[in-house]
């Protein structure tokens, strides 16, 4: 079995290493500043726990590595502009959006997108950083260097946020976990709840959307798709081409964790369909209590993001 080198040595890389141990897979999370000669990458399969990285001696070596899975997909999805363009090409629903190139565009932006504009840096903005909620008269709050480096989206009135974690094998087979309901505070994911019985219509819709993305990119491994619930449909918010925080529950709440699933996919091992092992119970009362908690938390937060 080939070893796996993970570009990045944060918590996701360490969890991938732990998932590999029972399978006899050597997984090496590697810091971006590591010296190439200290990393056993030559005969390894390469993956990453992050979407973007600076140029270092190691990343220059890996740039041409033939077994760097999804190597050319990472930069495409790390840039919100090219990510949104991909979703538009696939005719997948998102909040209305556009590139914000110049301050002179604000009248047109508000006329087209409405009175709440969500501005996001194209790269690097996450956990509430690099993002602004602006209304007419607040345009000066945006730094001058943001123009050309940001997209702007319509503020959406949504009833909930969910993410779908799925995986695709080399042969194109896709498997998925149940939709996970997410609660954010100050732009940071605080809680993810996988209900015992997900809404079948939303689950099917989400799986069709993520399948279209995975197949269009010829992606291999785990990907997460974050969505807004608007009425009976989903709007895609963002994609993460890696294992994801909203999938941590799978380590103890599913028959196979997202980390093992990712390793299996990139190494060409059999890809089982994940089964739920619901620690909160399997009955409708538990589902009802979970939904009440989610609804109460959503009511206490702004419905516009």
Give the total of domains. Answer: 3
The SSE string, one letter per element, is: EHEEHHHEHEEEEEEEHEEHHH
Biggest sheet, open or closed, and with what strands and sense?
Answer: 6 strands, antiparallel
Round the mean pLDDT to the nearest integer and report it: 90
Number of E strands: 13
EC number: 6.3.4.18
Protein name: N5-carboxyaminoimidazole ribonucleotide synthase
InterPro entries: ATP-grasp, ATP-grasp_carboxylate-amine, ATP_grasp_subdomain_1, PreATP-grasp_dom_sf
Organism: Serratia rubidaea (Serratia marinorubra)
Write up this protein.
The protein has 305 residues and is of the alpha+beta class. It has 3 domains: 4-68, Rossmann fold (3-Layer(aba) Sandwich), CATH 3.40.50.20; 76-80 and 157-267, D-amino Acid Aminotransferase, Chain A, domain 1; 96-154, Dna Ligase, domain 1 (2-Layer Sandwich), CATH 3.30.1490. The protein contains 9 helices and 13 strands. The strands form 3 sheets. Strands 8, 9, 10, 11, 12 and 13 form a 6-stranded antiparallel beta sheet that branches. Strands 4-7-5-6 form a 4-stranded antiparallel beta sheet. β1 (4-7), α1 and β2 form a beta-alpha-beta unit. The termini are far apart.
């Amino acid at each position: 079995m080939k070893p796996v080198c993970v570009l990045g040595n944060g918590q996701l890389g360490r969890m991938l290493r732990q998932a590999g141990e029972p399978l006899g897979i050597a997984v090496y999370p590697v810091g971006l500043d590591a010296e190439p000669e200290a990393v056993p990458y030559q005969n390894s399969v390469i993956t990453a726990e992050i979407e973007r990285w600076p140029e270092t001696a190691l990343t220059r070596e890996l740039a041409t590595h033939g077994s760097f899975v999804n190597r050319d997909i990472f930069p495409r999805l790390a840039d919100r502009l090219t990510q949104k363009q991909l979703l538009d090409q696939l005719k997948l629903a998102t909040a209305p959006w556009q590139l914000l190139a110049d301050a002179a565009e604000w009248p047109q932006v508000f006329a087209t997108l409405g009175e709440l504009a969500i501005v996001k840096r194209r790269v690097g903005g996450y956990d509430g950083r690099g993002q602004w909620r602006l209304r007419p008269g607040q345009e000066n709050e945006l730094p001058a260097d943001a123009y050309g480096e940001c997209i702007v989206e319509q503020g959406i009135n949504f009833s909930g946020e969910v993410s779908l974690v799925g995986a695709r094998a080399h042969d194109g087979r896709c498997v998925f976990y149940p939709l996970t309901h997410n609660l954010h505070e100050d732009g940071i994911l605080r809680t993810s709840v996988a209900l015992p019985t997900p809404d079948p219509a939303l689950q099917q819709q989400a799986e069709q959307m993520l399948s279209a993305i995975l197949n269009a990119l010829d992606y291999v491994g785990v990907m997460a798709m974050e969505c807004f619930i608007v009425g009976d449909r989903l709007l895609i918010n963002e994609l993460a081409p890696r294992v994801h925080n909203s999938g941590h529950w799978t380590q103890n709440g599913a028959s196979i964790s997202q980390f093992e699933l990712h390793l299996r996919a990139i190494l060409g091992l059999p890809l089982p369909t994940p089964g739920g092992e619901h620690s909160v119970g399997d009955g409708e009362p538990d589902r009802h209590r979970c939904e009440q908690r989610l609804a109460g938390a959503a009511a206490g937060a702004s419905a516009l993001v």
